[in-house]
Amino acid sequence: MSNSPIPLPQTAVPAGAAGWQSYDAARWRALRPAAWAHPGWSLAALAGTVAVAIATTPAAADVCTEAAPCDADWVGAGVMTLLLAQMLWIWRVPGWAAATLPVLALASLWEEDAPFAADAAVAVAALAACVACLHRLDVARRQQALALEAAGPARHPLPARAMGVRRGRVQGVAGAVLLAAAACAAVAGLAGVAAQDAHAERATRLGATVTGWGTESLRVDLPDGGRRTVYAAFPEDYPKGSVVGVLVDGSWARLVAEPYDAMGWQLLGLAAAVPGGCLLGVALTGRRRAAELRRGPVPVLRVLARDGADDLRTYVYAADDTEGRAPVLACALWPAREVGAEADPDADDSDVELPEPTGRPLREALLYGAPGAGGEIVLVSGDADEPGGVLVECTHAPVAPAPLPFVPEPGGWRETSWGAGWIERLVGLALAVIGVGMAQPLVGGSASWDDVTSAVVGCGMLAVAARQLNWRVTADASGVSICGGWRVRRVPWDALAAVRPPSAEHGVTFLVRTADGTERVTLTQLYGPRVLVDRLRTRPAALRAVDALEAMRTDPALRPGEETPAGVPAGPVLVAFVVLVFALLVVLP
Fold first, then answer.
1. Which of 30, 235, 435, 498 has the fewest beta carbons under 10 Å from its own?
2. pLDDT at residue 184, as a whole number
3. Same domain? 218 vs 98
4. In 3-state terms, what secondary structure has residue 253?
5. What pTM was estimated for this model as a whole?
6. Structural domains in the chain (count)
7. Residue 228's domain spans which residues?
8. Where is 365: in which H helix or E strand?
9. Cβ(324)–Cβ(304) under 8 Å?
10. Tens digits of residue pLDDT in 446-504
């Protein structure tokens, strides 16, 4: 790798700009939220406790009676909207989540339908999530403090080209439109309730006999011999021949137990308010942080930068890391010269995977601002396309710490086998159960074409489950064993041409030299859902395997000294189990 980064013209370097040295950069990179503060735990706790609260709510609470009519539950709809918005804010806008989670905790305690213990569990989960968000925000502030310490007392204004960039315009407009749609839905629902209540105040209450059922409706005979069709959410709850209370106002009529149903408007408002609130939160937070960056002189750090090889991210390195071995942070940048005052680079791709950057030249750069997780920076670097030129870039997605670098242990690599973790096995088990359920109709008597289609899809899910349950890559003295869902592939070290990290289309790819050329052996989806890869505190096993195997391939001294048993494919075992289950379904009555 080149030791001569693309130079930055000295005229672009402000006086007193300090270099971000490897020691200070390592302290910044090592300062990460604790494992318990990972947003996945908060989301799991909230979702689990809410599910328990719903499951333990007495059935009588959902029954409409004439003594307790089913009025439109606007408070419940608001709490549910806030809860679903929290699922997004906890992940993307922890500041908003920390401010509103206590409100959700109080609302859950105020709710009376579910048992108090279940409501209290929801409140505890909400407060725990609030503490986790505050911890993540505190870590970001401490990262900024470390950057300020490394930058020293000097402060400098942003380059003029960076002052015209405006963050959050597209997302803010989209969020505002969605929230306006949600408000319109709420107004329409309230107007419908008010109109129905006005009819109810003028109406006469009569006892009517149920004569038939329709789709969400009842046919009733009135005492004067007239017949009406009235709305009923569950008509089967009213037996034929029974007498029900009906309110009649001219041509208008409804059941006493079932006032106007605003559920449709409430669902529409919820569907618009949740993404609208998330978009608006992301937009306002990014806009506020960008405005703070442009408010006055900011600290400047001399660093090195390099574009990612397989993504649209730029990776920042310490100023003395001329080999580009340990990236400090990753950020999505937009050239300020192409933005202008009227454009808005808001294509938010913070969920894009961050593979290890390789193969792109390093550039000398200046980092304007105090970087912290979720923050905003401006990067000024040497322009690779124009010798002597300067490239000014602004973030259009929050800054993220780069993956921690992995180095081999002295005398070899400690980890020599990598396989499915408990999350992947749970996913594989779920896919297997679903696949068996989809194929089960073929075991019965006659099967329709829909059953055949379902069975084909189920078999595909079983194939994916076989890989997820027990994939394994093992390195030993003579080569690499690649255990997929159905067979074990043995690749000698001499035949292993390269090991490539996961990209947008594939999983870990092994390039194997054969007599006919080079063959690709790809294990896909080894690292779980892509949206979780960047948020996991520990690097997924598949990505650790890439680091280790590529190092072992190029340096024989790092290879293990003994042979290691390969994994066992789960596919044949899974097929035998499915056949046994289907056989029992046929034999047993």
1. 30
2. 94
3. no
4. strand
5. 0.65
6. 4
7. 164-265+276-288
8. strand 363-368
9. yes
10. 566 667 777 788 888 888 888 777 778 888 888 888 887 788 888 888 888 777 665 54
